[in-house]
Amino acid sequence: MLQANLVKPEKVILEEVEIPSVRENEVLIKVKYCGICGSDIHSYKGKHPFVHPPIVLGHEFSGIISQTGKKVKNFHKEERVSVEPNIVCGKCYNCLHGRYNICNYLKVIGCVGYNGAFAQYIAVPQNKVIKLPREISFEEGALIEPTAVAVHAVRKSKQKIGDKVLILGAGPIGLLIMQVAKVSGAGEIIITDLLDYRLKKAKELGADKIVNSVSRDLVEFIRETYGENGIDLIYECVGREETLSEAIQIARKGTKIMIVGVPEENPRVNLAYIGDRELELIGSLMYIRDDFEEAIDLIQKKKIQVQPLITHSFKLKDIKKAFELILKKKENVMKVLIEI
């Protein structure tokens, strides 16, 4: 089979390797589509804090079951599936308390310690496989994983009905959080970005206000528009020092900032503001099964739209071109899929 191996920063080689053998509790999946995630971009550039080449990236994927292990009972050949890509120990404190997404021994398919789905076949534990409803296409199936990220962040934020919500970053994750927040009862959503085409997409998908942070001072805009009552909840979906600092400056005393973006460097922020204003900076990592199933339900019932986020598709042999396209930040590049 063919796989794309990241052997060092910005160097992906296509390799012919053996199709993975299947253990008794595993399922072999023939991959159909796999999305390129923001964390894949960090990894490609050699700036992801937890990803170390050589590794086959790719954790947002859909496919068809090709083979099942001897002890697999609930899945059969030719079934359409998606995969929850966090591999956990099931025994540490967090696993035993329902927070296995922060397992002490966490591995992530295509990210940390486990080769991913930029490959024609992948073997995964059966307990991580989820059947894909017929109403969801394979392309949409590749966006279940990032939708689950959004569901988890909104759930963890304890967002309240009617909240005024600010989202920093209108990339795929920001736009998915925007839609999930709306479905969850947000009263008003403001979303920011540096790129007008992303903001246009945000408006099409339901944003109440859009702000280009290049042409408008965001801190000033929030103060002028919302006064001292300000914003109720902030989602930071970029992971840059500038946006983290903006979030802290904007946050009303006693409010919450959800950190969803993955920083490439060690950002410096004003900790004095956090203490003085009793701000809550809360990290959000991945998801648990409930979030994944909720994501499937939202997509299946058309409560959120994922298809409009897909702008490009490349064959596996052209994966380097796909990464280069994203890094060039050209107009109208949003979610890029690899067709395998």
* Strand percent estimate: 25-35%
Percent range of helical residues: 25-40%
Catalogue the unreliable spans. none
> Helix tally?
11
Order of helices and strands: EEEHEEEHEEEHHEHEHEHEHEHEHEHE
Report the span from N to C terminus.
Answer: 11 Å
CATH topology of the largest domain: Quinone Oxidoreductase, Chain A, domain 1
CATH fourth-tier homologous superfamily of the largest domain = Medium-chain alcohol dehydrogenases, catalytic domain
Tell me what you see in this structure:
The protein is of the alpha/beta class and 340 residues long. It folds into 2 domains: 2-143 and 306-339, Quinone Oxidoreductase, Chain A, domain 1 (Alpha-Beta Complex); 148-283, Rossmann fold (3-Layer(aba) Sandwich), CATH 3.40.50. Helix content is 29%, strand content 25%. The chain has 11 helices and 17 strands. The chain has helices at residues 38-45, 93-96, 138-141, 144-157, 172-183, 196-204, 218-226, 241-250, 271-276, 289-300, 319-328, and strands spanning 2-8, 11-16, 26-35, 60-68, 80-83, 86-87, 107-108, 121-125, 129-131, 164-168, 188-193, 209-212, 233-236, 256-259, 280-283, 310-315, 335-339. Strands 3, 4, 5, 8, 9, 16 and 17 form a 7-stranded mixed beta sheet that branches. β13 (233-236), α8 and β14 form a beta-alpha-beta unit. α4 (144-157) crosses α5 and α4 packs across α10 (289-300). The longest helix is centred in the middle third of the chain and has 14 residues, at 144-157. The radius of gyration is 20 Å and the shape is globular. The N and C termini lie close together (11 Å). The relative contact order is 0.16. The model has no long low-confidence stretch (mean pLDDT 95).
